[in-house]
Amino acid sequence: MYTMKRDVECSEIGANGTVRNSSILDYLQDCAFLHLDSHPVMSPYFERENVCMFLVSRQTEIIRRPEFHEHLTIKTWTCELKRMYGFRNTLIYDEYGDVLVKNYESGAFMDMQTQRPIKAPLELIEKVPLYPKADMDYSSRKISVPDIRPEIYPDINILKCYIDMNRHVNNARYLDITDEFVDNYDSVKQIRVEYKAPIRLDSRIHAEVIREGRSVYVSLCGDRVYCVVEYLS
Questions:
Q1: For burial by CB atoms within 10 Å, which of 43, 45, 188, 224 has the most?
Q2: 152 burial class (0-12, 13-18, 19+ CB within 10 angstroms)?
Q3: pTM score over 0.90
Q4: 184: left (phi > 0), else alpha (psi -120 to 50), else beta?
């Protein structure tokens, strides 16, 4: 288990005065990365074998959005681990100990050189301590998009500022892109993301949007479906 402290600063606040969706994901991914980077079992393995974890899915419940100058505590832990996949919870608390955000995500072990998924050694997996799952309503890691005609939006430019150290669009930047297609994007209560394939700087993509009931589905597509995001109000 790993704990991180963070103060909410002006660079993380959107036009309506609360933390942006992508900033929430920044908190979550920073805490998860620091956990793995300092992990006594996983960190040496990643460095020795040139392996990392690529995010596959994320489910984020927003109970209350953090506000400017709030003091946050972010806690993350591994709740399940298999040879190809890992699963973690990350929770964001306010300074009074109330939970603001609950998150559940899955990642795949990936060879950095080949960019292909691999199986980690069983003896390594057995050394990693696991903690109970957080109390939340877990949905499927795969998002079922309604079988109705989507609204199709023109090509989206992939900007250099979206690209991270793995040379593809950072997982939080997907929401910087997909928020554009959601009314009141800063009041949604749950965001689910299924990452299907990495979007790189030279990728040509467009958005396919379906609105049904309380949900908005945004698929980022090109020669394949790269990512599906579901916003639930």
A1: 188
A2: exposed
A3: yes
A4: left
